[in-house]
Amino acid sequence: MHQYIIAGIDTEIGKTVISAIVTEALQADYWKPVQSGDLHHTDTHKVQALISNSQSKFHPEAYRLKTPMSPHAAADIDGVTIEADKLQLPQTNNNMVVELAGGLMVPLTKDLLIIHMLKQWNLPVILVSKYYLGSINHTLLSIEVLKAHNVPIKGIIFNGETNPTSKEAILHYSQLPVIGEIPWMEGDLTKEQVKELGKRLTF
């Protein structure tokens, strides 16, 4: 069974689009544990709108927060306390994709980081990287954090315009496999495009 966590090296790298592509490729269930902001058009809504298959199930978020901020800050504004016990993986017999709310070291509370939940869930991570100035550093640091916490890593998906030099450095130092390379898509994606992009992935 393919069950993966989709993590990004930074914000605005297309993590939700990649989650949709992986979900469609595996006909997997999808879960976003914490949604901060955009409650009228959540990441779950966005992914669901890009899925063609009838197998995928979309599990409700454990927390829906009103403000588009780090979960701990958004929860404080809403007067909500995020509890680890309420962030249990949905029960399913299907493949599953879990999209993180932010990066690996984003706080959920003053004592709980997202990386702590990854240790509890014990699912392999697919790390989404995008080429930009500093992305080698951000990618390798993310990998080191995962390794330091003994979180398994399935591999890397590169999202956006290619940069062979950066790719070579990341793969050399990380020794991780490439699951796929997805071009940066401008404008609204279609279900057919998502399905075709999924065929580029190797799990």
Describe what is shown at a glance:
The chain is an alpha/beta fold and 203 residues long. The protein has seven helices and nine strands.
Describe this structure in words.
There is one protein chain. The longest helix is centred in the last third of the chain and has 14 residues. The chain has 7 helices and 9 strands. The mean pLDDT is 96. Strands 4-2-6-1-7-8-9 form a 7-stranded parallel beta sheet, sandwiched between helices. A two-stranded parallel sheet has the order 3-5. 33% of the residues lie in helices and 19% in strands. Helix 1 packs across helix 7 and helix 5 runs parallel beside helix 6. The chain starts with a strand and ends in a 5-residue tail after the last helix. By secondary structure, it is α/β, with parallel strands linked by helices. It is globular, with a radius of gyration of 16 Å.
Query: In DSSP terms, counting alpha (H) and pi (I) runs of 4 or more, how many helices?
Result: 7
Helix content: 25-40%
Strand order of the largest sheet: 4-2-6-1-7-8-9
Q: Strand pairing plus helix content: what structural class?
A: alpha/beta
Task: List the main descriptive attributes of the protein structure presented here.
single chain, 203 residues, alpha/beta, two-stranded parallel ribbon, 19% strand, globular
What is the topological layout?
Blueprint: E1 3-8, H1 15-26, E2 29-31, E3 34-36, H2 43-48, E4 58-59, E5 63-65, H3 71-78, E6 96-99, H4 114-121, E7 125-129, H5 135-148, E8 153-159, H6 164-174, E9 178-182, H7 191-198
Parallel strand pairs: 1-6, 1-7, 2-4, 2-6, 3-5, 7-8, 8-9
